[in-house]
Amino acid sequence: MPSPSYHAVQPDMLDERSDWLRKQQRGSTRTKRIIYIGVAFLLAAIIAIAVGVTVSNNNKHKTSLSSTAGTVHSDPNDPSKFDKDPRLHRSFYGFAYTPLGAQMPSCGATQANVTEDIQLLSQLTPRIRIYGADCNQTALVLQAIQDTKVDMQVYLGIFVDDTDTVYTRQRDAVKKAIQDYGTDHIAGVTVGNEFMLNAVGDNGDATGAAGIKAATYLDNKIADFRSTLKSMNLAKTIPVGVADAGSYFNLQLLSAVDYGMANIHPWFALTTINDAAGWTYDFFQNTNVAQAANAPNHPDLYIAETGWPTKSSDAAHASNGAATASVANLQTFLDTFVCQSNANGTKYFFFEFFDEAWKDAQFGGVEGWWGIFDGNKKLKNVTIPNCVLS
Ligand SMILES: *[C@@H]1O[C@H](CO)[C@@H](O)[C@H](O)[C@H]1NC(C)=O
Ligand SMILES: *[C@@H]1O[C@H](CO)[C@@H](O)[C@H](O)[C@H]1NC(C)=O
Ligand SMILES: *[C@@H]1O[C@H](CO)[C@@H](O)[C@H](O)[C@H]1NC(C)=O
Ligand SMILES: *[C@@H]1O[C@H](CO)[C@@H](O)[C@H](O)[C@H]1NC(C)=O
């Protein structure tokens, strides 16, 4: 199907991005591992001190909310009691979320951190999506929702690469988490993230031979996960979907899923900030929604990621064609996309919750700077749109 492909616009930049995507899923180097271990020891010491202080404070003032290591004031004995930030509004259809320390092999994600993330996210949206199931992130997120008692649905993720063991260990982690936490807060399970993009390549055609081969591979994993759900009597309870770059779906793949999630980034389409919201909407409609209409099963379609970076770590990547990274431009995108999309029924996951230092360290440029919050969970200098979803 001839359709505008933002990946065809400027292959260099997209090389870089898909490079990032490929590397994102690979392990860290040994050096990185050593750094992580060092940081982990340091953090353990900091957390030990913080917990000590918090516990002693809490013993003194049993009823007051204590300040923990992070930014949310919360009762350390009951995470459902936490101060709401008046600057935040539950205006977003959804948010894309990757917990800190969710990459193999370093991992390191903690319950305290994920719980605080969920306290913040619940003030922005009723739903989130995650990308994989390594490093215990599925259980950490579901435990956090249970402990905070927030109204939150999550699209779990199973990251798929070309090795079966990577899929299998995550399938089993998701299965265990469903057994432990039930299905109340699970909106779906997304099998695969940008597998098609990685398999077909930047200028590849997802409807060609390589795309069919990649879709067949994914279809097998999707079928396997469906049979896992069936063995748990949950086949009709939990939708199974797939996420990929907006230009990388084909009819075979869409026909195999209950939902498709498409990454649609005006930044990578080199748009001006003023054109960004409209471009995103048009791309989604003309490419993904149109393609899904030809699938006999009529899968639900979502924008899996859209957002705007607030800076670049080097001057060379601060602009991408007509797109320029800045907090002011993130504000413009928030102001032109969020409430308008809610009003016209576009279902999207805003990218993303917070800045990810590991992406900056590994890839530089704008990759680490897409958060609404910075890496310390401080809200950036933006005004959150106020059009709270009912
Ligand atoms: C979360 O992790 C960060 C950085 O690793 C750490 O500084 C912070 O104390 C942690 N927060 C909580 C609530 O554990
Ligand atoms: C995973 O997280 C859950 C929830 O915090 C916890 O109960 C469980 O022990 C964790 N599992 C591992 C292997 O760390
Ligand atoms: C839906 O909202 C987007 C902005 O997010 C806008 O560009 C688009 O024109 C709107 N579509 C309709 C049909 O109102
Ligand atoms: C925050 O953004 C506003 C514009 O929206 C600007 O006037 C103000 O100077 C910014 N504050 C900081 C601390 O950057």
Overall domain count: 1
| CATH class (first level) name | Alpha Beta
Estimate the mean pLDDT confidence.
86
Number of strands: 13
- Determine the CATH superfamily: Glycosidases
- Total helical elements: 12
Radius of gyration over alpha carbons?
A: 20 Å
Throw out a few tags for this protein.
390 residues; 43% helix; three-stranded antiparallel sheet; binds 2-acetamido-2-deoxy-beta-D-glucopyranose; eight-stranded parallel sheet; globular; alpha/beta; TIM Barrel
Walkthrough of the structure:
By secondary structure, this protein is of the alpha/beta class. It has a single domain, classed as Glycosidases (TIM Barrel, Alpha-Beta Barrel), CATH 3.20.20.80. Helices cover 43% and strands 14% of the residues. It is built from 12 helices and 13 strands. The protein has helices spanning 6-9, 11-24, 30-60, 111-121, 137-148, 164-181, 195-200, 209-231, 251-255, 273-292, 327-343, 357-363, and strands at 66-67, 73-75, 78-82, 95-96, 127-129, 153-158, 186-193, 240-245, 259-263, 300-306, 319-320, 323-324, 348-350. An 8-stranded parallel beta sheet has the order 4-5-6-7-8-9-10-13. It has a 3-stranded antiparallel beta sheet with strand order 1-2-3. Strands 11-12 form a two-stranded antiparallel ribbon. Strand 6, helix 6 (164-181) and strand 7 form a beta-alpha-beta unit. The longest helix is centred in the first third of the chain and has 31 residues, at 30-60. It is globular. Bound molecules: 2-acetamido-2-deoxy-beta-D-glucopyranose (NAG) (4 copies). Residues 111, 136, 139-140, 143 line the site of one 2-acetamido-2-deoxy-beta-D-glucopyranose. Its main location: membrane. One of its GO terms (molecular function) is glucan endo-1,3-beta-D-glucosidase activity. Residues 62-83 are annotated as: Disordered. One of its GO terms (cellular component) is extracellular region. Belongs to the glycosyl hydrolase 17 family.
